Amino acid sequence: MRKKVTKAIFPVAGMGTRFLPATKSVPKEIMTLVDRPLVQYAIDEARAAGIKEFIFVTSRGKGALEDYFDHAPQLEQELRKKGKTELLETLQSTNMDSGAIAYIRQHKALGLGHAVWCARRLIGNEPFAVMLPDDVIAAEKPCLQQMVEAYEETGGSMVAAMEVEPSRTSSYGILDTSEERGDRVKVNGMVEKPAVDEAPSNLAVIGRYILAPTVLKNLNKLKSGSGGEIQLTDAIAQEIEQGRDVYGFRFRGQRFDCGSKAGFLQATVAFGLAREELRDDLSTYLQSISQVDRAAQ
User: Fold this and answer.
1) What is the pLDDT of residues 260-292, one digit of tens each?
2) Which pTM value belongs to this model?
């Protein structure tokens, strides 16, 4: 019987330099889309997929991220006293049970592959998910849940994939694919940030993975690759070389790159418009901006 995916790694050790000066004191992962931190979207998606153990790979200066998941008894007491039941429930939904969450330090910035490798002792010999909170995905059924359901049929390793403009392939890990199986594609190889004229396709890997434990063994043997970092895509590519299955999964949903300022702003607008209590005011404002732009032209 195939083992269930119940553990997820969240690599959150990055310094968030693209969002300075905000990230001087606030970890990028707890910057908010509307009223929820980026990391809360990832946690909610993981919970919907059946994840029970949450492993954060952090670095110095991430104390506020750890505190975010702790209980806040005084605040809960005040909300309870004032009868603010809805706010109390929202607050309590951010709490993590004792033992459900673990924090591991990545002492050197050696890439995504190295961050995943740092969590190897907590994974053991089980399949596991990797989630990058920078990638926020709006979907009717959460992306990782879609992937877990597909994984239960296929096994192997699986990466979330989407088509990008050919001119953007040098910014992503790119899949070399063969047969199509509905929302799954068989992967023959993976190339990290290839030059535009060397990309095997325009199907890019984004920040959701379900990986076999053998990927960790591959990471154990890897030397630095593209950009002088230990690349997770190189370790996944070795799975293919060793005769194990790797699939690309065309998820249903819209991905926002919240590691960039433009992507973060786009996500803020999209998630704001999705909120019933905000939609009318925000739509009116956006329409007024559009009218001003047209008049200026």
Assistant:
1) 999 999 999 999 999 999 999 999 999 888 776
2) 0.89
